[in-house]
Write a structure and sequence with these properties.
This protein is α+β, with helices and mostly antiparallel strands. The protein has one domain: Gcn5-related N-acetyltransferase (GNAT) (Aminopeptidase), CATH 3.40.630. Helices cover 31% and strands 34% of the residues. It contains 5 helices and 7 strands, in the order E-H-H-H-E-E-E-H-E-H-E-E. A 7-stranded mixed β-sheet has the order 1-2-3-4-5-7-6. The longest helix is centred in the middle third of the chain and has 15 residues. The termini are far apart.
Length: 159
């Protein structure tokens, strides 16, 4: 599997993958997920900004995510994998790629926001080392903020 920055010619495929991944959770929420409301123009802007990535097997795009850095905080969003490729650690590898990338760019922590009502999202990120740091309401939906420290905090001397 290869992970790289997305190209503009892949915008339709990225939209398809995001739709396929987020459509099933729509029933668990009181409103349509933001990922499903995004149009091709917004996805294209993220591609042009260089923060949209794709996972490929051969030349087939099978997954996508966004990764950007704000100060020392890396932000990962829109992780999505084609249903026929789920269960193969592709989502985990996308997140790991983003963690490594942003660590090299100076991030000391990675932040992800997930829907509180979607247990599969919460458990996925918990399994790969993320922990809840807060909850907030956004447009009527509970959002769980999760983080993962990339830099070990120095141990305090026990004198």
């Amino acid at each position: 599997m290869t992970i790289r920055r997305a190209n503009l010619c892949e915008v339709d495929t990225i939209k398809e993958i995001i739709t396929e991944a987020y459509e099933p959770i729509r029933k668990q929420l009181s409103r349509m997920p933001g990922a499903l409301q995004e149009g091709l123009a917004k996805i294209s802007r993220h591609i042009q900004m260089g923060d949209q990535y794709v996972a490929l097997i051969g030349d087939q795009v099978i997954g996508t995510m966004r990764a950007r850095i704000a100060g020392n905080v890396g932000v990962i969003s829109r992780v999505a994998v084609r249903s026929s490729f789920r269960g193969r650690r592709i989502g985990s590898m996308l997140v790991e790629y983003a963690e490594n990338l942003m660590s090299h760019m100076g991030a000391s922590v990675i932040e992800i926001e997930v829907y509180g009502a979607v247990e599969t999202q919460l458990s996925f990120y918990e399994k790969i080392g993320y922990h809840e740091t807060g909850r907030l309401m956004r447009l009527g939906e509970e959002i769980v903020v999760m983080q993962k420290e990339l830099v070990e905090s120095p141990m305090e001397d026990e004198d």
